[in-house]
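Fold this: L-xylulose reductase-like
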Amino acid sequence: MEISFRGKKVFVTGAGQGIGRGIAEQLWRTGAKVVAVSRTRSHLETLQNEYPSIDIVELDVGDWDKTREVIESLGHFDALVNNAGIGLCQPFLECTPEAFDTTMNINLKSIINVSQVVAKKMIENKTQGAIVNVSSQASKAALKDHTIYSASKAGLDAVTRAMALELGPYGIRVNAVNPTVIMTAMGRIGWADPDKANTMLSKIPLGRFGEVSEVVDAVLYLLSDKASMINGVELPIDGGFLAT
């Protein structure tokens, strides 16, 4: 199955590294005009060095007003990937209001903000676009020390469903992907401890963690016309974790 985004303009947040970078790169390979967003300039510069035609935007999506101003200035998009996120892990009894506010601001509030601006432009231009929100298996299952993170991702799943309901009549599809642990550069470091890794791996029927490409492929499919009747879905990419 061949997927092409030739002639499409796609906005990707959290595109400086990891899953977001993988999505931006593969969208570029399939012909998209990619606008890659990150708050870390050095990550964006290395991305543009490899792919000079990718437009880069240094932006902290946690800043509501600045984010709206920047996205408004970039014009119309055919698709959006909300990948920017933060994970602050604390035991339930030690959760702080600062961690709650910071996490919800990035993982939930910023996605509503970005999506509002992009979706309004889609509607104005009568574009039957697609939006994919990067959620987590943590929205569906309890994970130790993930109280606030899990709540933010469960909220994101709810927002995804609401967006699908309200934007669907305009021909705009909205879906989420819910990955397990993914072997990004940070993931390989964070899960290098065999005891920690084996506890999680024992709950995954396929017996391994995911690769970045496996999330990228799912996201591109959901963005593409091949998924034209898929709307409001939360797709686990977890090797069966949620089936157990």
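The first strand starts at residue 9 and ends at 12. The two ends are 30 Å apart (CA to CA).
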